[in-house]
Amino acid sequence: MIRHILLYLWQLPQNVAGAFLVWMYGYDKAFPYLGAEVHVCRQFPSGICLGNYIIVKRDEPVTVAHEYGHHRQSLRWGWLYLPTVGLWSVVHLLCRRAGIFWKRRSDYYAVWPENKADKLGGVWRDDNGRRCV
With the C-alpha atoms ordered 101, 104, 107, 108, is the resulting torsion angle positive or negative? Predict the structure, then answer.
């Protein structure tokens, strides 16, 4: 019990943000996943992990596993997760969508921190380059 409290506090900024998004968007279903809580919300634009909260648009195994990889990054980085992993992930996404630095069709999951989240979440590539769990 004490370990869970300490880990929650270690990730406090992202846990507060995650709880706020779950409250704001609501969810269609929720289930535990390896120490995190997955919230499926069809109204959410994509997928995100904020501390113990994984919020996804669809309950797809690859997406959940990838976001779980971000959960593991959050456990490692603690309060530094949002200014490092979170900020870089958002900047990368926005630059990619705008065609700055990366082509719009480039592989979003090929660069850090996305490739590290895939690895930590158990996502791998098959012979055709498709992401699998």
Answer: positive
Structure-token match 């690895």, residue found: 119
Surface-to-core class of residue 88, CB atoms within 10 Å of its CB (0-12 exposed, 13-18 middle, 19+ buried): middle
Render pLDDT for 78-91 as a digit per residue (tens, 0 to 9). Answer: 999 999 999 999 99
Structure tokens at 23: 């409250």
Whole-prediction pTM: 0.92
Helix or strand holding residue 52 (H, E) = none
CA atoms within 13 A on the CB side of 34: 14
DSSP 105: T
Torsional class of 30: left (φ above 0), alpha (ψ -120 to 50), beta (otherwise): beta
In the chain, the amino acid numbered 96 is R
Domain positions in the chain are: 2-123
